[in-house]
Amino acid sequence: MRARTDAASPAPADAIELTVFRHLFAAVAEEMGLRLMRSAFSPNIKERRDFSCAVFDAAGALLAQAAHIPVHLGSMAFAVRAVLEAFPDAVFRPCVHYVHNDPFCGGTHLPDITVVAPCMAPGEEQARFFVASRAHHTDVGGLSPGSMPLSTSIDEEGLLIRPMVLDSDAATWIASHSRTPDERRGDLLAQVAAVDAGATRLAEMCSRYGAGVVVQRGRELCDYTERTVRRVIGTIADGEYRFEDVLDDDGLGTHDIRLACRQVISGDSAVVDFRGCADQVRGPVNAVRAVTIAAVSYVLSCLIEGEAPPNSGLLRPVRVLTRPGSVVDALPPAAVAAGNVETSQRIVDVLLGALAQALPGRIPAASQGTMNNVAIGGNDVRNPARPQAFAYYETLGGGAGGGPSRSGADALHTHMTNTLNTPVEALEHTYPLRVEEYSIRRNSGGGGAQPGGCGIVRRLAALAPVEATLLTERRVHPPYGLRGGAPGAPGRNTLITAQGERRELPGKCRLTLQPGEALEIATPGGGGWGSPTQQEGLKDADGRAGQGA
After folding, report:
1. What range defines the domain where residue 74 resides?
2. Is residue 40 a contact partner of residue 135, using CB atoms and an 8 Å limit?
């Protein structure tokens, strides 16, 4: 490793030094994530790890990220640049933090709040880098507890925070709009602690190696990733590849919402065209352009064999075309609560479906294609002397699609999400809910030479009157199989009354549960890959034969 230098134009790094800096930048993001997880108040952040942290250059381009949530990470650069645009004449200073959640300028949906902080090298006043943390806050107001409502405009989804300085007054104002203000303030302070840790580590890197060197190594890492992506695209035959799928509905009467992708490969570059997608709809499944870009970035990263730093170089060889006012490039005041979590998953499905035509030996069948959003809230009256408002939010895993070389995995989060589950012990301790079943949904994966993975069954019983909102997909149109594989089983939502009667629920709904009633979510299985005759008797990891639903 070269010693510290303040040269204006540092010599290019060799492969070893570039690898070292790749891990140094990534370690900054990982430490930020650990600080956030350990100091957060809500189970959604400290247990489920519904957050992401990343490092950006002075212009807001992504340099490094931790292994967090793709839909956050692929869109956070837009959020950082929104701060720079909102404060074009600002002299950024240490320990000054910025906050926003506006989906139409780099956010995703309102519960995802982003905190941004500048980083200066010792003795300098110019911001050399920015660090950011994005965390899903379980309630930011809106029509229903959990802030994931069946909304018709963003005004019904909660507090909209345009880029602003995050000081004590701002934190109090944000928290006051939540049904759980103390938890919100605690989680915001945890995000501040996370970005402060990242800024400190970057300043230490600048002190040790020289600010110019650290900046230059960041540029070289992005250039390296760009070269890697170009090599990958160059292995795909030139041509045009198309695929389309549909969202089940928007929860408010619009069904079979078209998502269409056209990919044009030319040499080492590509055009990804979503202009054939449906117009934005009345319900909350609209996605903003930043979410669509995040899905493209995620799929590109999946195509890279081995390791390449995930940074702004990923998208340089790709032009993404969207149509403003469409379901993948929504304009205000569109409702967007589910676009981040549900539509992003279907965008991945159509991207992979198109690529399966170009790379049939590499692309798996569709995974569950939904995050199975469950939001529940009300008053926790287990201690009658001190009833407290609560808001619980969770996304649920399902089956992964089978692929050319392996069966799909059971019961895990796939594609644009990368969270954990809320442990049963933490859930029952924190909320007036009881987990009555948590199991693998047997035989829900699509059959094939490589069967799809199975979904899960999670049944939650109410111990107090609560209000629940479900935003789920793949309840009508199942995850597709590929090359003769069968589709996975669609998901199913069920209300179980206190008398044991089962009532099927739509994929998107809002309902009240009384004590003794339960909500059962059966998540989709993954699609199968290949005709079963291609490999008779193939067993999955549990020793069972892959079966269609």
Report:
1. 15-227
2. yes
